[in-house]
Amino acid sequence: MTQRIAYLSWPPNEISGGIKMAFAHVEALREAGWEAVIATPGAGMPTWFESDAPVIDTSELVADQDILVFPENHHRFLKSLASWPNRKLVFCQNQFMVHRGLKGSRDYADFGVRGILCVGRHALDFCRRRFPSQPISSVPVFIDHDLFCFQPQKRLQIAFTPRKRPLEAAFIQDLFRAENPGFRDIPWVQISGVPTRTVAQILKESAIYLSLCRFECVPLTALEALACGCVTAGFTGFGAREYTTAKNGFWATEDDCLDCVTQLTRAVRTVTAGGPSHSEMLEAAHISASYYSRQRFASRLVEFWRVYLSDKGSSG
Predict the structure, then answer these.
(1) From CA 310, how far away is CA 199, in angstroms rounded?
(2) Do 13 and 135 fall within a single domain?
(3) Is residue 268 classed exposed, middle or buried when 0-12, 13-18 and 19+ CB atoms within 10 A define those classes?
């Protein structure tokens, strides 16, 4: 019998794409026939997205049996289970959060970890540089194309998620309205603290999405906006460079709010003008988003674990 795979998680009532992706890993592994669970204090279930992944309390983890998969940024988990002889991996979903997990330690190996699984090429490149002695692999993210899909009926409104850049969001909105009196009355719809289905509905209804990514690995909301047919403008947060191009959006120089307003203005004008430029951008966005399919994700994930659980599995 294969060992149980336990993805340790922050409380799933917190709205975080990283938590949702951990649940997605468990779901896909169970579909492939492996025993996999989420382990979190209190065994709480998510309230902001739907999942059939089983959840256990961390007290139910079994020493010397379960394969433990740690978030890259959870020092307490890593420290409290450091003495356990279990096979251990780190699931790195944001390279900028690695230091929080380490808290001054030299390497994840100090906690008995052997292997790092990343979600994108930026995290992969970082981890290869930061942890040259660790086996490092990568499994892509995906978006739910049944939920995040194009809807022809659009409203002339700007959807945005200000959590990572609240100051920039206020600055950009003010300057955009001052420079574009004709667009001053366009509604701005904030996406914050709402369930996944509500996020999808807002993006499907919105003609424009303002990306306010910052220090991320593979930002999903901007990718979901592309899938929903939003003309997207704003910051890549570095990580979105994995899928952004000059054809699929109007991308600003990182941290340059003036340039961001310029790009947002171009996006709104493209939508209001319509025509071939608008259609071509939506087509490019669709092609970019389509690459991040669940089928590709599940195939890569199953292949990773097949190798990991084989005789050579510890090599990643």
Answers:
(1) 39
(2) yes
(3) buried
Contact 281, 231 (CB under 8 A): yes
pLDDT per residue as tens digits for the range 213-244: 999 999 999 999 999 999 999 999 999 999 99
Q: Which helix (H) or strand (E) holds 304?
A: helix 294-309
Closest CA to 111 of 81, 137, 154: 81
Could you list the beta-strand ranges (E) of 50-138: 55-56, 67-71, 88-92, 116-118, 136-138
What's 229's domain CATH number? Answer: 3.40.50.2000
Q: Domain range for residue 162?
A: 155-290
Q: What single-letter DSSP state applies at residue 41? A: G
- Within a domain: residue 148? no
Distance of CA 159 to the CA centre of its chain: 18
**Tokens at 76, concatenated:** 């307490």
Number of Cα atoms under 13 Å in the Cβ half of residue 246: 0
- Per-residue pLDDT, 99: 97
- Measure the CA–CA gap between 130 and 124, rounded to whole angstroms: 10
Instruction: Please report the pLDDT score of residue 311 as a whole number.
Output: 58
Q: What's the predicted TM-score (pTM) here?
A: 0.93
